[in-house]
Amino acid sequence: MAERYHIPVLLDECMEQLDIKPNGVYIDLTMGGGGHTGEILRRLGPEGRLFSLDQDPEAEANAPSDERFTFVASNFRFVRGNMRLHGVEQVDGILADLGVSSHHFDAKHRGFSFRGEAPLDMRMNTRAKLTAADIVNTYTNDALSKIFSEYGELDTTWKIANCIERARRIEPITTTAALVEAVKPCTPPKDEAKFLTKLFQALRIEVNAEMEALKMALEQSLKLLKPGGRLVVISYHSLEDRIVKNFMRSGNTEGVIEKDFYGRSTSPLRVITRKAIIPTNEEVERNPRSRSAKLRVAEKM
Asked: Which residues of 268-281 are buried (b: 16+ CB within 10 A; e: fewer)?
């Protein structure tokens, strides 16, 4: 396996909550640098199997050489179809770490960070067509404002959209630095980093259709899990966490709890973590990017 570029978040906690059976079948929906994948393999016996998905072509370089392991080059929204192609109908556990890999932020040419100058890209799957530059240069004011409001949870988003429109009238916004400059008139001086983090987050979510992909992955994971199988998810911002929490509580991403004739919940999942597990102070010190992580776990009934 290539040298690991990813520090796995909440590693011990994830392994404990997955409750790995040595002969079980598991899925890592987000292989990335391979940290969680490697630890699951270490806990599996000779009969165990692990499938790890990632849509980023660069992730495959981190795939371990192990006969128990299969790398699947795909967005996790297609997990059930991919498992069927491999003859797998049900699994014992599914893990998803929804964070953007440190590698993506550090690889400046990918355009995920507002620090420095890079092409305004932000595609997880570099084979995909839509880039962040396409969005900021072609979306209407209303569409941009909606993205920044829903996915960035920013205020007065119409002002941000107006700043972008004025700048792109002069010349296309094609780099991260050009976008930072375009929104400078509406960037709060005291909260510049926080503002830009949310702005770039919103664009990244739109580029990669992350919310829709997450909803599809959760729904398919439920169908793949055996009774007693565990769903373990790490989220990093409130939008993801809300969807995950709703799904684990109700079995659907809207959070609508259905009840039977006697008023009893018919949710197909039992929530294991009533309160999200968060990193210890020691872990945050070792890996500052883990600061906002929230781990939630549910078991199929």
From this structure: bbeebbeebbbbee
Which pTM was predicted? Answer: 0.93
Q: Is pLDDT of 79 > 50?
A: yes
Per residue in 118-148, pLDDT tens?
A: 999 999 999 999 999 999 999 999 999 999 9
**Amino acid code (one letter) for 36:** H
CATH number for 218: 3.40.50.150
Long-range contacts of 279-285 (CB under 8 A, 24+ apart): 279/9, 279/10, 283/9, 283/10
Pairing of strands 25-28, 49-54: parallel
Query: What are the residues whose beta carbons fall under 8 Å from the beta carbon of 167, sequence distance 6 or more?
Result: 173, 178, 181, 182
| Distance between CA atoms of residues 278 and 296, nearest Å | 9
- Is the same domain home to 127 and 91? no
Question: Phi-psi bin for 255: left (phi > 0), alpha (psi -120 to 50), beta?
Answer: left
**Same domain as 176, residue 221:** no
Residue range(s) defining the domain that contains residue 249: 11-102+210-300
Do residue 88 and residue 231 come from a single domain? Answer: yes
The residue behind tokens 């690991």 is 4
Q: Given this model, what pLDDT does residue 7 score?
A: 85
Domain count, the chain: 2
Q: How far apart are CA 148 and CA 14, in angstroms?
A: 32
Cα distance between residue 285 and residue 241, in whole Å:
23
Which CATH number do you get for residue 203?
Answer: 1.10.150.170
Mind listing the pLDDT tens digit for each residue in 25-44?
Answer: 999 999 999 999 999 999 99
